[in-house]
Amino acid sequence: MKILKKIGWILVVVFVIAQFFGPEKNEGDLASVSAFIAETNPPSEVHKILKESCFDCHSDKTRYPWYNSITPVNYWLAEHVADGKKHLNFSKWSSYSLKKKEHKMDELYEEVEKGEMPLDSYTWTHSEANLTPEQIEAIVSWGKKVQGEYKQQMNAK
Fold it and tell me: Which of 58, 89, 90, 126 sits CB 3.0–4.6 Å from 33 for a disulfide?
């Protein structure tokens, strides 16, 4: 029984020390998505959906919940954000080629339409990110329109 007590105390000490360390936060400026917003011109409803359901993981600015202060949760969240930005980063939209923008818009509305995005692990703690069928339709319609515009631009070249 003494050994279990020692192991327990060691784990507590390690947990407390770990709280002094954490990953780098994704605390850029939400203005970094302005090029994306200006270029794709989402309706106000879609802009609101993007802000509440997408930008935290797919831009250079994340709104962190209180539990991000707890190690190891903060590392798990940092990995989610890094993975999201790897697939699509609205803050880097202006650096994407026309072909890549067209492809990303296709992926965006398809992932939302299939219910793949936003992730369940995000909506569990961000209930405002749960999309209604009407919101999904708004995203899909807007995404298809923007993708079509990119296709036209590509065909014009």
Answer: 90
- 86, 116 contact by CB (below 8 A): no
Q: How far apart are alpha carbons 144 and 82 in whole angstroms?
A: 26
Write out the two tokens for 151: 């296709």
Amino acid at 145: K
Return the amino acid letter for 132: T
Question: How far is 48 from 8, CA to CA, in rounded Å?
Answer: 46
Write the DSSP string, 68-135. Answer: GGSTTHHHHHHHHHHHHHHH--GGGGGGS-HHHHHHHHHHHHHHHHTT-SS-HHHHTT-GGGPPPHHH
Read off the amino acid at residue 58: H
Task: Provide the Cα torsion 72, 83, 63, 44; round to 10°.
Answer: -160
What is residue 17's predicted lDDT score, i.e. its pLDDT?
Answer: 66
Query: In sequence order, what are the residues at sequence separation of 6 or more whose Cβ sits closer than 8 angstroms to the Cβ of residue 90?
Result: 32, 33, 36, 50, 54, 55, 58, 59
Q: Could you report the average pLDDT of every consecutive run of 10 residues in the chain (157 residues)?
A: 78 69 70 88 94 89 75 80 90 93 94 91 83 95 93 83
